[in-house]
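Slide 14.
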Amino acid sequence: MRHLPLLLVLPLALAACDGKGGTSISINATSDDGDGFKGNFKLPAIKMTAENFDMDGVKLYPNSTITSFNIDAKDHPGEAKDEGKVVAAFTSPAALATVQRWFRDKLTAKGFKFSEKGNGFAGTTEDGERFTLDLSADGGEKTSGKMEIVGS
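Slide 15: predicted structure.
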């Protein structure tokens, strides 16, 4: 399954332990034979940050905190395409316009095909995975966001 390496992000989360707050993590992964794993976790001693998330070389805005991280993956038998979706909700310590500009520059530099969608962006990564990035002002110098990546 191609998205299974995204599960490798979890050990990075474990390394991000700081004893404050926590990131809500959910995983739903099944194979073509029905085996799998499903769970929801709230690990108060683990706090995922911008350094723990990478979308084909594009990280979250510096010093962002991931508030929830969800993985859905399904391995299909034979030649059928596998499915995978990763959703990360986060907060960034900067105004909406600053975060928008930062992502626009990073996505452009990586050669992603994208367009503006509301306050965020939608497009495809260099690997052809679809993504959406929704951003919203969250008072003063703070922005809330949700990154969703879907692929096979």
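Speaker note: Confidence is low (pLDDT under 50) at residues 1-19.
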